[in-house]
Amino acid sequence: MSETARKAAGLAAPSGDANRWKALVFIALAQLMVVLDATIVNIALPAAQEDLGISDGNKQWVITAYALAFGGLLLFGGRVADLWGRKRTFVLGLAGFAVASALGGAATTGPLMFGARALQGVFGALLAPAALSLLAVMFTDAKERAKAFGIYGAIAGGGGAVGLILGGFLTEYLNWRWTFFVNVPFAVVAAAGAYFVIREPEGGRNRNPLDIPGVLLSTLGLVALVYGFTRAESDGWSDTVTVTMFVASVVLLLAFVLVEAKVKAPLLPLRVVTDRNRGGIYLSLGLAIIGMFGLFLFLTYYLQIVKGYSPVKTGFAFLPMVVGMITGSTQIGTRLMTRLPARLLMGPGFLVAGVGMLLLTQLEIDSSYPALLLPAMLLLGLGMGTAFMPAMSLATQGVQPRDAGVASAMVNTSQQVGGAIGTALLNTIASSATTSYVKDHIAGATGRPQQQLVGLQGMVHGYTAAIWVAVGILALASLIAFTFVNAGRPSMAPVTAGEGAEDELPVPVVAH
């Protein structure tokens, strides 16, 4: 495309910002820190619980405090990035996350730990949407965007598994506190690099006053939804507080939609989510994450409790999934994104991941890692990596620059809510199936060794029952991707203003 045509389309030249690839390094580093933090603490939790004297009833708050703050404030964080500027919000989020991590590592009591985790969630909610929206506004050339989002997608998908590896190393060879302290150098390097390297493109700010009713309704609604699923996991679906949280979340989120449809400057412009492609992305991505989060949990327990793996060995057992995700995202997704419509990467990607999940329904106590788990993890990684990459890119492509922050926040929100649902839903299914199996088989077990065997068999039976549900969820994610996502391959042709386009800023379009 000529320079004149590129300027007419409102696009930065590929060589316009010489530092954009350096900036990607620091954005990716920050994203890795946020994603691995979601799983790194899981490995360290038993040691931290014992050291700080946290009761079994309260230990969930180490995870829940982070999830509630992060999930509840994501839309607000995305809007702040649009208002203050993405670079400023990104650096502030990193600085706050570093301080919160240091407080968590130095915690001497349970409440201090819970507070530090909540603070991590607050600054993570600023950081995550700012990182994705920076990519969206800095990389506008189709091929460069494919490469940048390939790297970002690999980190977003594989960071959780990296967290398990790193958490195992730090817990086994140093101390659980280092699962928090390790974030500080990550954050300092990323913040310093971002401050000196990132040059946010001019314009695209949303300087409208903050939608306070929208902030309150969305935050309370999302907090109630995430807490409802977390509570369901520990206290059951019929628990009074669980039901109350779900009812409250529905009422609050419906009120939020009504408010957003009427106010002049909404927190979440409904045009962001009512777009067919973006709506399909948010929905299919959230469903895929439901399956993934449940799988991380089950395989971690299976490898450590049933197979007797150490934390480090467990972490390394997830390496094929990380390799698959990196390969799927950077080699398959990146190479094909400019040649194929997104649905022909996302739909098959989720199906390949579903085949990997289907293999895991054959899990037994004595299952072979090389024969069953390794190929299953490779397929899961390849499929998810291939699907995540175009999803991350298309979710922010075509959106008005002033809405890039909230569009990015919606990607993170679908992942966060999907993770909460996946953990609660699949764990409940697994627990119920385990209880039923043990009840039916324990009578025939004579002696303690036999009873322990039945317990382990029941545990694995519960995992496979839940994994069957995850297979169905991934199939549904694939169907939604095929059905809703109808954008063609990216094209850098100039945008033609049409009816109602006077409010739009020029953006890359897609060829059908």
Automatic annotation (TrEMBL):
Pfam families attached to this UniProt entry: MFS_1
Gene3D superfamilies the record matches: MFS general substrate transporter like domains (1.20.1250.20), Multidrug resistance protein D (1.20.1720.10)
Cellular compartment(s): Cell membrane
InterPro entries tied to this protein: EmrB-like, MFS, MFS_dom, MFS_trans_sf, Sugar_transporter_CS
Transmembrane segments: 21-48, 60-78, 90-112, 118-137, 149-170, 176-198, 210-229, 241-259, 280-303, 315-332, 344-363, 369-392, 465-485
Annotated Major facilitator superfamily (MFS) profile domain residues: 23-489
Keywords, in A-Z order: Antibiotic resistance, Cell membrane, Membrane, Transmembrane, Transmembrane helix, Transport
Domain of life according to the entry: Bacteria
Topology versus the membrane: Multi-pass membrane protein
Coiled-coil features, chain-numbered ranges: none
Main localization of the protein described in the UniProt heading: membrane
Name recorded for this polypeptide: MFS transporter
Organism: Streptomyces achromogenes
